[in-house]
Write a structure and sequence with these properties.
The protein is built from 15 helices and 36 strands. The longest helix is centred in the C-terminal third of the chain and has 24 residues. It is elongated and about 170 Å long. With 700 residues, the chain is α+β, with helices and mostly antiparallel strands. Keywords: Membrane, Transmembrane, Transmembrane helix.
Length: 700
């Protein structure tokens, strides 16, 4: 056999030895949710094999946690043989004490491992894993304010240059901006805050939370250099961080070779917060640590220097080929060229996203919501739904914005005069009038004697009115009723020719303006509590819904019951509060079934050789009598032969690719990413069509 053939045979055997991939579980736990993934190490890099769905539990019952963990582990490992047993845990910071599982949580962790037959490798603090994962993804240590949302509180983590400055737990009030401000204000000696806020919670819609943060006056209240950017992370970010970032450190602790990502700084175990070599529960749980083995042989790599070095380290005894040595060397060079050529042919991959100008169909549709329907009928407009209710209670307070005049009425004495021939009794409450429309009332019943007459020595008769003293009180508060002595008053019901009164001095009348509750205050507080309870009900319902399920509100039925205001309208108060209950009524539907109806409604309008790319501008109206009006846009793209396009793209340089794509109907632009990075002269699209990933999207 020629020397070159011997060398190629040896090389082929050496290269063909591929290690069997070992697979592991990652299980992320929080006070509300559980999610699993299966991960492995391939070519020195951790990668996710499969994700399980996120499951909920009440944060207290270990049986509920076991059930939720079993469901997500089963989903993650479906179809995987053999099923993994080794597991790394992602744990909240509150479950960890001094690099170990807290004594409170150890029994729970042991219970999980025993019941599910899991072999713990170690654990990673979830927040730290996310920070390390973002560093790997973005290439630099992040500086941001991470906010983990739950139904009852937020966990606020301040991160600078990839390091956690501190964290704060804040109860949720319905105003996320105010809650975040409260948490940030607890940090001491912070000169400036990073102008980036990142929301995450393992699921849910963040739009309303984003709007609350975007409408908050950050620069006025906290040391931000400029208004912070608000963003949210994908629902699966937590389990991905635990599996990829934590898995990388776990793999190294098990003796696996992990490659450092190019142009990025690898997160160390200490920086990541990964704990290995310790039980994830108690000492009785045996960690899945392999027996000590000799240092594994270096793996073959497809670049010259490591490959040559591996031959030297292995020290393979070479036969004495004598005069055939030049032939052997030539054969080796030929083999190397063949390897490089094969690598250039098989290894490169490309992602090509090209944007086409979309045709738009505007459509309006009335959909019948039917709780008894089980599926969408072709050509129909009936959507199967489920009616749900959720009773939630809560309270809110707000400052009063109305005003009210309060004070005391003037009081004092009067002398009542009777000019008639008969005595007169005036009942308590009899009204007397003064100037400027002032009114007073008698404090008690008063009797006044009749007039009297006297005749002097000259026969002149003098008439003297009867009189009596009494107490009166002003009808209105304020100083205007403070009257001087001898001020004349008349009776509202009688003529001054018969009766009148004079004051002996009135005092004590005061008035001042104070805060009071207005009807607008009551209405606004009721609306605010209603909105808060709607959000609370949505959040609680959302935890029990599948990823494909959505809720429509029955707005005409969303109102508070058992309302109890602390202060009535018109009462003086600086603040008012309200407690109440909301019986939330919603209609649950599946997005995939709604999409089927939307497609059915426009399919007759789709031109030949076009297909629906996406729906946009979907605006459901208000549900009335189980009829949902909806308007939307269907974006259409031309139907293209992707297999033919791949054939025309293979082996082309990017600029030639652009030229070809310009020949496609309605082409606008393209994004082309080729990996690995190659010199310009070699930078072509892959020769194999299977290594070209095509994506077609509507142009923005």
């Amino acid at each position: 056999m020629p020397a070159s053939a011997e060398f190629m045979l040896f090389l082929k055997k050496f290269i063909s030895q591929e290690p069997k991939l070992e697979q592991f579980f990652a299980l992320n736990l929080s006070e509300e949710k559980v999610q699993a993934a299966v991960w492995t190490v391939r070519d020195g890099k951790t990668e996710i094999v499969k994700l399980g769905q996120s499951e909920t539990w009440d944060g207290k019952n270990q049986e509920e946690l076991l059930k939720a963990a079993d469901q997500t582990l089963t989903a993650a490992s479906a179809g995987i043989k053999p099923e993994p047993s080794g597991v790394i845990f992602g744990l909240p910071d509150g479950w960890v004490e001094k690099d170990a599982v807290s004594s409170e949580k150890k029994p729970l962790m042991k219970y999980l491992c025993d019941e599910l037959e899991l072999k713990p490798i170690g654990f990673v603090v979830t927040d730290t894993a996310i920070i390390a994962y973002l560093k790997i993804e973005e290439g630099t240590p992040i500086s941001a304010i991470l906010i983990q949302l739950s139904s009852s509180e937020i966990n606020l983590i301040l991160v600078k240059q990839g390091k956690i400055v501190g964290s704060q737990l804040v109860g949720r009030s319905g105003d996320l901006g105010a809650d975040a401000e409260e948490g940030l204000s607890r940090f001491d000696k912070i000169d400036t805050l990073p102008a980036r806020i990142v929301l995450y919670n393992g699921g849910g819609d963040f739009e309303e939370d984003k709007q609350q943060l975007l409408s908050f006056d950050w620069e006025e209240k906290l040391p931000f250099i400029h208004f912070p950017k608000v963003e949210s992370l994908d629902s699966a970010i937590t389990i991905r961080a635990v599996a990829l970032a934590g898995g990388s450190e776990a793999a190294q602790s098990l003796g696996m070779e992990i490659k450092t990502p190019a142009a990025k700084t690898e997160a160390t175990a200490a920086a990541l917060g990964f704990v290995s070599g310790k039980d994830a529960a108690e000492e009785e749980i045996t960690p899945a640590v392999p027996e000590e083995k000799p240092e594994p042989k270096p793996k073959l790599k497809f670049n010259w220097q490591p490959f040559a070095a591996s031959l030297k380290k292995i020290k393979i005894p070479l036969p004495n080929f004598g005069a055939r040595w030049p032939v052997l060397l030539g054969g080796g060079l030929v083999a190397l060229l063949i390897i490089l050529g094969l690598a250039y042919w098989y290894v490169p991959k490309a992602r090509v996203v090209f944007y086409l100008e979309a045709q738009v169909i505007n459509q309006e549709l009335e959909i019948t919501l039917d709780p008894d329907a089980t599926s969408v009928a072709a050509g129909g407009s009936v959507l199967p739904v489920q009616l749900v209710t959720k009773a939630v209670s809560g309270s809110q307070s707000a400052p009063a914005t109305g005003t009210k005049i309060i004070g005391d009425p003037a009081q004092g004495g009067v002398t009542i005069y009777n000019k008639t021939a008969d005595s007169k009794t005036f009942a308590a409450g009899t009204v007397l009038l003064g100037g400027d429309n002032l009114a007073f009332s008698l404090d008690e019943e008063t009797t006044v004697a009749s007039r009297s007459a006297t005749e002097d020595s000259e026969g002149v008769i003098t008439i003297t009115p009867g009189k009596a003293d009494a107490k009166i009180t002003a009808g209105n508060i304020g100083p205007d009723s403070n009257l001087a002595a001898e001020t004349r008053l008349s009776f509202k019901q009688f003529s001054e020719d018969d009766y009148y009164a004079k004051t002996s001095g009135l005092a004590g009348g005061t008035a001042r303006e104070v805060k009071a509750v207005s009807q607008e205050d009551l209405d606004n507080l009721a609306a605010a509590l209603t909105a808060d309870l709607i959000n609370q009900a949505k959040a609680e319902l959302g935890q029990s819904l599948g990823a494909d399920q959505k809720v429509i509100e029955t707005k005409d039925k969303l109102s508070l019951v058992d309302k109890n205001f602390s202060t009535a309208e018109g009462e003086a108060a600086d603040e008012l509060s309200l407690t109440g209950r909301l019986d939330y009524e919603g209609i649950v539907y599946r997005q995939t079934e709604l999409d089927l109806l939307l497609k059915e409604a426009v399919k007759t309008k789709i031109p030949e050789n076009f297909l629906i790319s996406e729906f946009s501008g979907v605006e459901p109206g208000e549900v009335k009598e189980m009829i949902l009006p909806i308007s939307y846009e269907a974006k259409l793209l031309p139907r293209l032969d992707l297999a033919e396009i791949k054939k025309n793209l293979r082996g082309r340089y990017p600029e030639k690719v652009e030229e070809y794509l310009n020949s496609l109907p309605q082409f606008v632009s393209a994004d082309i990413v080729i990996s690995p990075k190659l010199p310009k002269v070699l930078k072509t699209l892959p020769r194999l069509t299977k290594n070209i990933n095509l994506e077609i999207k509507p142009a923005p």
